[in-house]
Amino acid sequence: MKRDLDNLVLQMHDAGITYADAVREFKKRYILEVLARHRGNQCKAAEELGMHRNTLSRTLVELDMDSTQIKKGLRRPPRPVRPERSPLQIVSGGRISGGR
């Protein structure tokens, strides 16, 4: 993991990313990961991050992270719409009538 981090730092430096931007992006990604693990629950995420929930909330604002969008992104997608069924067919005397 340390080697991956070293390579990432080198790539960011070579790309001209400033220290402030690098730290900002790291914070955003790290916080997003913790929030995702707690399904958007800021209280639980803040506890894992070692900060108060209000501090996490302020940090989200500072990083331009919309907590409602984070929660929406973590929700289960809506159930697919069931395909329409064909009209019922009446069976009489072993023969199917209607539709065919």
Structural account:
- The chain is mainly α and 100 residues long.
- The chain has helices at 2-14, 19-37, 42-49, 53-62, 67-74, and strands at 90-92, 95-97.
- Strands 1-2 form a two-stranded antiparallel ribbon.
- Helix 2 (19-37) packs across helix 3 (42-49) and helix 3 (42-49) packs across helix 4.
- The longest helix is centred in the N-terminal third of the chain and has 19 residues, at 19-37.
- The protein is elongated, with a radius of gyration of 26 Å.
How would the global form be characterised?
elongated
- The number of strands is 2
Estimate the strand proportion.
5-15%
Compute the number of helices: 5
The largest β sheet comes out as: 2 strands, antiparallel
Q: State mean pLDDT (0 to 100 scale).
A: 83
SSE run: HHHHHEE
Distance between the termini: 64 Å
Q: pLDDT below 50 for ≥5 consecutive residues: which ranges?
A: none
The structure class reads mainly alpha
Strands of the widest sheet, in order across it, are: 1-2
Helix proportion: 55-70%
Overall radius of gyration: 26 Å
